[in-house]
């Protein structure tokens, strides 16, 4: 198997194992055995478990970004995009709760870095969607996008990362949802609320 192909297979397999069992219980030996490769081969690709963990999170980030990008291409509604981002974050947090708890408890530096980078990524997507929503008239006329993004950044920075990870990310998702909903026009709010359940059900299936 080519080196890059094996590298990607290691990351994909380790990600699945970490999500299912957490990263504390899964050792490098476990991962090598699952892939039917030697531990030496595994360490040729990843010198430390921490390095593999970071690549696994980057892999999950790419998958999530691909979902958001696909949704952006398939739907022109910024309201739909905002809802999709909020629900992605909420569903993501529940699916990887065990892994995030392990990382927070045993790799706090990685956890802090991942939490804030993930939140900033979503804030960036939200900023694009808000600007598009204002252009389409979905926001109240007096809404200032720059001020809104400063407020969202404040929310991100003040989420309690000492609480359970799934709770922290869900709090972030719901806080951003409530904040953005308050900026929408009356017609857009109605649309916003109608779409929420359908998007959550769609994401839960994936």
Order of helices and strands: HHHHHHHHHH
CATH class annotation? Mainly Alpha
Q: List unreliable stretches of 5+ residues.
A: none
Q: What would the CATH topology be?
A: Tetracycline Repressor, domain 2
Helix content: over 70%
Strand content: under 5%
What is the number of helices? Answer: 10
The radius of gyration over CA amounts to 19 Å
Whole-number count of domains:
1
What is the annotated CATH architecture?
Answer: Orthogonal Bundle
Q: What is the β-strand count?
A: 0
Q: How is the biggest beta sheet arranged? A: none
Q: Which geometry do the CA atoms define?
A: elongated
Structural class: mainly alpha
Through-space gap between termini: 29 Å
How confident is the prediction overall: mean pLDDT? 82
Structural write-up:
This protein has helices spanning 3-21, 28-35, 39-45, 49-74, 78-95, 97-106, 108-135, 145-157, 165-181, 186-205. The chain is mainly α. The chain has one domain (57-205): Tetracycline Repressor, domain 2. Helix 5 (78-95) packs antiparallel against helix 7 (108-135), helix 5 runs parallel beside helix 10 (186-205) and helix 7 (108-135) runs antiparallel to helix 8. The protein is elongated.
């Amino acid at each position: 198997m080519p080196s890059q192909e094996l590298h990607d297979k290691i990351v994909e397999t380790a990600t699945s194992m970490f999500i299912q069992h957490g990263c504390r219980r899964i050792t490098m030996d476990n991962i090598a055995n699952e892939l039917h490769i030697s531990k030496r081969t595994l360490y040729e690709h990843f010198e430390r478990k921490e390095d593999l963990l970071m690549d696994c999170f980057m892999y999950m980030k790419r998958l999530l970004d691909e979902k958001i990008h696909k949704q952006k291409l398939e739907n022109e509604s910024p309201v739909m995009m905002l809802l999709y981002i909020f629900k992605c974050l909420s569903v993501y947090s529940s699916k990887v709760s065990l892994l995030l708890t392990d990382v927070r408890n045993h790799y706090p530096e990685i956890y802090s870095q991942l939490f804030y980078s993930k939140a900033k990524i979503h804030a960036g997507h939200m900023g694009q969607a808000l600007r598009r929503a204002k252009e389409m008239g979905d926001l109240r006329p007096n809404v200032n996008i720059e001020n809104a993004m400063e407020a969202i950044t404040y929310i991100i920075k003040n989420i309690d990362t000492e609480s359970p990870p799934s709770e922290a990310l869900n709090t972030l998702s719901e806080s951003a949802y409530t904040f953005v909903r308050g900026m929408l026009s009356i017609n857009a709010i109605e649309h916003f609320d109608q779409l929420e359940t359908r998007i959550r059900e769609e994401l839960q299936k994936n």
